[in-house]
Amino acid sequence: MAYSASMRKAIGEVRRAFASVGLERQDPRFAQHGKHTPDTDAPTVLVACSGGRDSMALAAVSHIVCATLGIHCGAVIVDHQLQAGSRQVARDAARRCEDLGLDPVTVRAIDVQDLHGGRSTEDVARQARYAAIVETARDDAAAVVLLAHTRDDQAETVAMDLMRSAGIDALAGMPPVFERDGVRFLRPFLELTRKQTTAICGELGITWWDDPTNGDTMPADQPLPESYPLRSRVRHTLMPYLSSFFNGDFPAHLAQSTEVARADRDFLEVSADGLYGKAVCRNGEDTVVDMRVKPLAEAHPAIRRRVIARVLAELGMAFTSSHVRSIEALVTHWHGQGPVSLPSGYSANRQKHVIRVCKNG
């Protein structure tokens, strides 16, 4: 079968992603024409599939690539139970994956509850989704889990992160490879557009489900109401406007900038490791962290802020850059001021040469 340019690019990206984590052809026989069954002890790859066009395209392409490498290719579908009919949507996605030849295919239903308070439904759902995917990956002894984020998703993520925080981390976007709770994740489609994944589904005769909260059925010249998720409004309204305003492909520009930003961020992270070891002290309590003022005061601001942000992230806060700057003021401009209020019931208080971040009370 002669593949289109979009299909060839997708296959190449998945192959490169596999190679980056050492997933190579298991035996020369898998390079030969014909249908071959992976060996029982061959690695397993799982595709996180929502049933949408991007993840269905990834499921199809990944199965094709895995067949040529002698690797098992399965899928995990998460039912968030947030919309009427979500159970059927998950079942339909599982059936489509099975029809493509993926095995094993697992459906996980999750209960989206904000146990910490103050977080958006999107954030809570994302955390619960990852937890379910990690659990499934462990059950299936998966070597990696594939996520179907595209170049468009990357640009949208950068735009949203720039509103939530400042600095290079917001520009770095989503990494192509990362680990979460001991499970490795890959994003092979970060160089593909949503238009290309749609074309791949059409080429392979694959149907998909469009989430109604994406706003795909709304007129292109009509902004989405604020009741729609932020990502949907960024995708439907903001990105087309910016592309029109600058007379260019603005999402492509944002997405392409992330590689440079990630390299710069990684350098800063390595530098922050050393300062973290000198300045941060954990006393065996999950909700208390002490930071020594002297090494923080002597450090470059970029490294100092990164260490402060790391401490807040480790405590599970949904913090902003203003919180980091407020704590930094306890280091650089302290004149006896009181504690800094932080999200999730935390505060930061300087006592002589130590800043303690802990739960109020």
Write the layout of secondary structure elements.
Elements: H1 5-20, E1 44-48, H2 53-69, E2 72-79, H3 86-100, E3 105-109, H4 121-139, E4 144-146, H5 151-164, H6 168-172, E5 177-180, E6 183-186, H7 194-204, H8 230-246, H9 250-279, E7 280-282, E8 288-292, H10 293-298, H11 301-314, H12 321-332, E9 340-341, E10 346-351, E11 354-359
Parallel strand pairs: 1-2, 1-4, 2-3, 4-6
Antiparallel strand pairs: 5-6, 7-8, 8-11, 9-10, 10-11
Helix pairs in contact: 1-2, 2-3, 2-7, 5-8, 5-9, 9-11, 11-12
Describe the structure.
This protein is of the alpha/beta class and 361 residues long. It has two domains: 5-244, Rossmann fold (3-Layer(aba) Sandwich), CATH 3.40.50; 268-359, Chorismate Mutase Domain, subunit A (Up-down Bundle). Helix content is 49%, strand content 14%. Strands 3-2-1-4-6-5 form a six-stranded mixed β-sheet, sandwiched between helices. A five-stranded antiparallel β-sheet has the order 7-8-11-10-9. It has helices spanning 5-20, 53-69, 86-100, 121-139, 151-164, 168-172, 194-204, 230-246, 250-279, 293-298, 301-314, 321-332; strands at 44-48, 72-79, 105-109, 144-146, 177-180, 183-186, 280-282, 288-292, 340-341, 346-351, 354-359. The protein is built from twelve helices and eleven strands.
